[in-house]
Amino acid sequence: MAFTYSVSTDRGKVRLFCYDIDSTEYVFEDDEIDVFLELNNDSIWLAAANACRVLAVRASDDAFAVKVSTALEIDKKQVSRRYLELAKEYEDKASKLEDGVWEFTDSFAISTSATGRDTSEYVKD
User: 6-18 pLDDT, tens per residue?
Assistant: First the structure.
């Protein structure tokens, strides 16, 4: 059984994204994280999405809800749902990267004269 965690590695990033970072109570072995990466062409986002789905299944095994009057409510079903939401978010990030879509704005300033003439300064590459 092996567990390593360093955010400078792809394995560590996958662990971070699915919050499997506690060396005393980890879920995935290093080899399992490596398989997620291998199956997803080394995409950390898709590997993390797969890991989150496994965690969702695992959490659903222990899911229960208890409500005692209005004073106490425990809903462990939300854990599984949250992992599935994370998986979807990570897949969306991966698809944007694959499509080459990057959201980027450095800064901009628009300046016009009193007559409406564009006097903005444009930076050329």
Answer: 999 999 999 999 9
